[in-house]
User: Fold this.
Amino acid sequence: MNEPDQSRVHHHHHHHHRRRKRHIGCWIAGIVGVLLLTVLLVIGYAYKNARDAATTMYTPVSKSTKSNKNRSSLDKILDAKKPVNLLILGTDTGAEGRSVKNYHGLTDLMMFVTVNPSKKHTLVTTIARDSKVNLPDYPEVSPIKLNSAYSLGGVSETIKTLDKYYSVPIDGYVLVNWASTMKIITKMGGVDVISPLTFDNMGYSFKKGQMYHISGKKALAFVQLRHGDPRQDYGRQERERLVMMAAIKKSVSYKTILNSSFMQSLGDSMQTDLSLNDMIKLAMNYQGVTDNVKSDYAQGKSSSVNNQRFGNMEVEIMSTKERQRISNNIRQTLGIKNVNVYKEDN
Assistant:
């Protein structure tokens, strides 16, 4: 019996091995291709949803103020990775979280978020909603509370009024509905806060100095304590600031902005003059700014004024000295020189 030709057998096995390697290689390449296509489709879908949500929210307003006169546009500031100052306005359109688009009520929250990327520093400054002001475009109803600026003249009047009293540039704004914000925080998986006091509200209990993971109704209960806080409105401002700082820290990421569920949840609950590209630039170019967050607030003196339309009202009077301090802190964070604020102490 003839022995098999060993060279032919070896050649046959070698040829079969090469075919199998090519087959496995093609199979792996195919799997990688499908996975890559799937990832691209998911990113594309997420981007489309994010773009649609951002388009719904996008509402440009006039920001023509003395402080903004020689200021670059927001997109140029973000492109250059320069310090930026954003105004956060919070409204309460009810527990159902109605749209902010047609809301003409009062703003419960007014907060500057000043970001310096080179120093990796963020300053969050709250301005009391009950601050006594004379509105630039509505002298006939002045003096009045600052939170009325939005109900009378919208975001533009609020920006004009804040510039009049604090002399700081405002590069962009975000208007949010508090009730919906709590739902958005839930979508984010909640945030961690340390309670500044011990209190019970809406069926929830909080102890001073203890950390809580809050979302939804619990977050609303933490913020909206109306009675029982010895610091009254300043106490509420602090809790609002704590929640917003935690939310900002968690949301300023590329992942969050391209999260379709998160972006869709914003929808009617938020209005802003930041485009989707602006949001992505903030997330990509300003990383690390939330690692060093400091908070501040304007401290006023309680008083009462007589408003010719609404009668007697309780207000907070901010001294020129206090407004100058706030202005200096924000301008220094922005890396621009200080200016003298408008003098009005009564």
